[in-house]
């Protein structure tokens, strides 16, 4: 677990969990705008198996709890795959609140549920493709992250460079996206949840967040209109203000 931008006397801590294939530096801008929080992150870019990736997130929380008196309540912030991992931790009773970007409680869905996720066959093709030509797979995945207007605005250029994850970690992350299912446990997540979701997300469709909003007892949705899969990128000041206001209300 890495720690960064520690603010002495901070009232709360945010543990950041990044999306598939992405380094946690993607959160740097939003963290800079939240200096009153203590920031931690989990680097699972070298995880060799799904089990190790899942274990890393649990160990990070357990390590934090040993020193929680120093840093106050724990928020778990997750994006995409990281949001699924955050929901998994909350279902186990970890965390005082969740901040979830482009979240889903189950990534793979049946053909009939295409408005809530991807069919498993597409994720399996990605796993095969990662072994054959990982650059092509990651490039295509990034193309899906943004709307046409966002690409024209060069928003995609703000992402960290491709290639920060080891190939086994890419496969492990995809295996988690295939297998993790938190839908049946949502009613057991009682902590406050802030959901931030792009209305034109093609990776975790908007139907997935509508499902979360309906089933999480203490969820609030912040829709980002005309936005794809990265609802915080280029909007960090707004997101930081919304997060701060929401958590203060809690």
Automatic annotation (TrEMBL):
<dbReference type="GO" id="GO:0016787">
    <property type="term" value="F:hydrolase activity"/>
</dbReference>
<feature type="domain" description="AB hydrolase-1">
    <location>
        <begin position="60"/>
        <end position="241"/>
    </location>
</feature>
<dbReference type="InterPro" id="IPR029058">
    <property type="entry name" value="AB_hydrolase_fold"/>
</dbReference>
<dbReference type="InterPro" id="IPR000073">
    <property type="entry name" value="AB_hydrolase_1"/>
</dbReference>
<dbReference type="Pfam" id="PF12697">
    <property type="entry name" value="Abhydrolase_6"/>
</dbReference>
<protein>
    <submittedName>
        <fullName>Alpha/beta hydrolase</fullName>
    </submittedName>
</protein>
<keyword id="KW-0378">Hydrolase</keyword>
């Amino acid at each position: 677990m890495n720690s960064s931008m520690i603010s002495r006397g901070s009232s709360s801590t945010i543990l950041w969990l990044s999306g598939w294939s992405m380094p946690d530096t993607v959160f740097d801008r939003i963290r800079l705008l939240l200096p009153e929080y203590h920031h931690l992150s989990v680097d699972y870019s070298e995880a060799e198996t799904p089990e190790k990736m899942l274990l890393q997130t649990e160990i990070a929380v357990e390590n934090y709890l040993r020193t929680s008196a120093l840093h106050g309540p724990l928020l778990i912030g997750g994006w995409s795959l990281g949001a699924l991992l955050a929901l998994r931790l909350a279902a186990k009773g970890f965390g005082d609140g969740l901040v979830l970007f482009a979240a889903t409680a189950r990534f793979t869905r049946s053909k009939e549920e295409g408005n809530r996720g991807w069919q498993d066959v597409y994720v399996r093709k990605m796993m095969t493709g990662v072994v054959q030509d990982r650059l092509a797979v990651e490039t295509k995945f990034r193309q899906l992250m943004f709307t046409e207007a966002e690409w024209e605005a060069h928003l995609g250029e703000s992402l960290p460079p491709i290639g920060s994850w080891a190939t086994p970690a890419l496969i492990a992350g995809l295996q988690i996206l295939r297998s993790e299912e938190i839908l049946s446990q949502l009613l057991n997540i009682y902590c406050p949840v802030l959901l931030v979701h792009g209305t034109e997300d093609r990776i975790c469709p908007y139907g997935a967040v509508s499902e979360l909003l309906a089933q999480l007892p203490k969820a609030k949705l912040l829709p980002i209109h005309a936005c794809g899969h990265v609802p915080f990128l280029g909007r960090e000041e707004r997101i930081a203000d919304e997060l701060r206001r929401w958590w203060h209300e809690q």
